[in-house]
TrEMBL record:
<comment type="similarity">
    <text>Belongs to the intradiol ring-cleavage dioxygenase family.</text>
</comment>
<protein>
    <submittedName>
        <fullName>PcaH</fullName>
        <ecNumber>1.13.11.3</ecNumber>
    </submittedName>
</protein>
<dbReference type="InterPro" id="IPR050770">
    <property type="entry name" value="Intradiol_RC_Dioxygenase"/>
</dbReference>
<keyword id="KW-0560">Oxidoreductase</keyword>
<dbReference type="GO" id="GO:0018578">
    <property type="term" value="F:protocatechuate 3,4-dioxygenase activity"/>
</dbReference>
<dbReference type="Pfam" id="PF00775">
    <property type="entry name" value="Dioxygenase_C"/>
</dbReference>
<feature type="domain" description="Intradiol ring-cleavage dioxygenases">
    <location>
        <begin position="13"/>
        <end position="181"/>
    </location>
</feature>
<keyword id="KW-0223">Dioxygenase</keyword>
<dbReference type="GO" id="GO:0008199">
    <property type="term" value="F:ferric iron binding"/>
</dbReference>
<dbReference type="InterPro" id="IPR015889">
    <property type="entry name" value="Intradiol_dOase_core"/>
</dbReference>
<dbReference type="InterPro" id="IPR000627">
    <property type="entry name" value="Intradiol_dOase_C"/>
</dbReference>
């Protein structure tokens, strides 16, 4: 972590959140496009505000659109899990799709994953989103003017890993560390 480490920026919760999702480590396994999609492995640590000390056993809820940009309230593209005793988490999913919020399908949200991180040990809870580098709808092109897709700390450059020379045997890897702010309450963009 760099010397200029700061708490992870908050973001909006969005209209598709619902509380108490099921416990999952693999997300979007029911997506009809799963057979042709690369797995997206998302991993990282949850740290205290000092950016060095991991916070163990933190509850994290994640929800996302499927590959086509659809949120379905009954899908397995939402769930919760806890970090391990070292503050580490790892989930597998698929790359979420962009979706239109405009009537004429000209206003898009960039691809993203939603995170709700429940604070522990004197740290605030956080609602944020993870975005993908290179998405043309980031920042000022995001149809959500309140969203935080312009924060570099939330934009992840994925890495590609292939177990063999066969390109169908590849995964996309995203490292997303989360730093919680000291205090009580919830950090969220209203």
């Amino acid at each position: 972590m760099s010397n200029d480490c700061k708490p992870t920026p908050p973001d909006i919760i969005g209209p598709y959140y619902f509380p108490k999702p099921p416990k999952l480590q693999q997300f979007c396994t029911g997506d009809p496009e799963l057979h042709r999609l690369k797995t997206l492995l998302v991993h990282g640590h949850v740290y205290k505000q000092d950016c060095k000390t991991p916070i163990p056993h933190v509850r994290i809820e994640i929800w996302q659109a499927d590959h086509d940009g659809n949120y379905r309230m009954s899908t397995d593209c939402r769930g919760h899990f806890k970090t391990d005793k070292h503050g580490y988490y790892e989930i597998s999913t698929i790359h979420p799709g962009r979706y239109s919020i405009g009537v004429h399908e000209i206003l898009y949200r960039p691809a993203h994953l939603h995170f709700k991180v429940f604070g522990r040990r004197g740290h605030k809870s956080l609602v944020t989103q993870m975005y993908f580098a290179g998405d043309t709808y980031l920042g000022r092109h995001d149809s959500c003017s309140r969203c935080s897709s312009n924060y570099n700390e939330l934009i992840i450059q994925t890495q590609h890993y292939c177990h063999t020379r066969n390109v169908t045997d590849c995964i996309e890897i995203a490292k997303f560390d989360i730093v919680l702010e000291r205090g009580k309450g919830l950090r969220i963009v209203q």
